[in-house]
Amino acid sequence: MQVGEVGELSEIFQWKGEVAKGLPNWSSDDKEHLEEELSDVLLYLVRLADVCGLDLGQAALTKIVKNAQKYPVTTTDHTTTSTRN
Fold first, then answer.
1. Beta carbons within 8 Å of 43's beta carbon, 6+ residues apart
2. Domain of residue 76, residue span
3. How far apart are CA 36 and CA 56, in angstroms?
4. Do the Cβ atoms of 62 and 37 come closer than 8 Å?
5. 71 and which of 5, 50, 79, 84 could share a cystine (Cβ 3.0–4.6 Å)?
6. pLDDT tens digits for 7-64?
7. Radius of gyration for the chain, computed over Cα atoms and rounded to the nearest angstrom
C-alpha cells in the first residue's frame, strides 16, 4: 500500500508554514518535487477508488455540494465571508 506517499507530501510542507499562492519563494526543484508527490498521491487515490468501485469524480462533486450547504458563503458590500466558525 502506498499510504506513505501522503506522508512524503506532508513532509514537504512540515517546515514551510504558510505558503503563498504560486509558491513564489520556492525553487524550481522544490516545485518539481511537490508536483511529483502530488501526482503520486493523486494516482494512488484514483487507483484506490477504482479498486473500491467508487466514482471519485462524483464523490468529489457530492462533497463540494455538502460543504457548500454546511459552510454557506454570504456577500455584503462586496465582501465575501464564510459563516463557518
1. none
2. 4-82
3. 21
4. no
5. 84
6. 889 999 888 888 899 999 999 999 999 999 999 999 999 999 999 999 999 999 999 9
7. 17
How many domains are there within the chain? 1
| Grid cell for residue 49 | 477508488
- Asked whether 43 and 54 are in contact (CB, 8 A), the reply is no
Residue whose entry in the numeric block shows the C-alpha cell 525553487: 27
Nearest to 63 by CA among 78, 45, 81: 45
CATH number of the domain that 18 lies in? 1.10.287.1080
Task: Write the single-letter amino acid at 11.
Answer: E
- In Å, what is the CA distance from 74 to each residue of 61, 64, 67, 85? 21, 16, 14, 13
Total length of the chain:
85
| pTM for this entry | 0.71
